[in-house]
Amino acid sequence: MVSKLSIVLLLGALADVWAAELYTDKYDNIDIDEILNNDRMYKNYFNCVMGNGKCTPDGLELKAKIPEALQTECAKCSDKQKKGAEKVLRFIINQKKDDYKLLEEKFDPEGVYRKKYEAQKKLAEEGKPIEY
């Protein structure tokens, strides 16, 4: 007979495994609007991600996770991280078109993800919510 304690321990272990599969939430409280609305801060983060400048710890984390997040459609992102990614993507698509092209060249030179995310890009351009 399986004891209640065994079930509780199993559920706890499963919760730990599930939580370990998400990206860290250590930087989730960074003010994205402040970064996007401050050209100097935006450029610093953009240059970090592009490999053209110094990175803050959160910038390094972002830079390291972008390729995997693209491949997995942000499967390890929390809801808050997905909303933040949508906000940043929408901003870059609509306000920094040249930067968007540079990001595509760096992270999608073969055009693999361009096709995959074309619908999301169109929604962002139209001001509609991006679907994951």
Automatic annotation (TrEMBL):
* InterPro entries reported in the protein's UniProt record: A10/PebIII (IPR005055), OS_D_A10/PebIII_sf (IPR036682)
Signal peptide region: 1-19
The highest taxon in the source lineage is: Eukaryota
Q: From which source organism is this entry?
A: Apolygus lucorum
The record's listing under SUPFAM superfamilies reads: Chemosensory protein Csp2 (SSF100910)
The beginning of the lineage is: Eukaryota, Metazoa, Ecdysozoa, Arthropoda, Hexapoda
Q: What are the record keywords, sorted?
A: Signal
Instruction: State what protein this is by name.
Output: Chemosensory protein 7
| Keyword Nucleotide-binding part of the UniProt annotation | no
Name any one Pfam family assigned in the record. OS-D
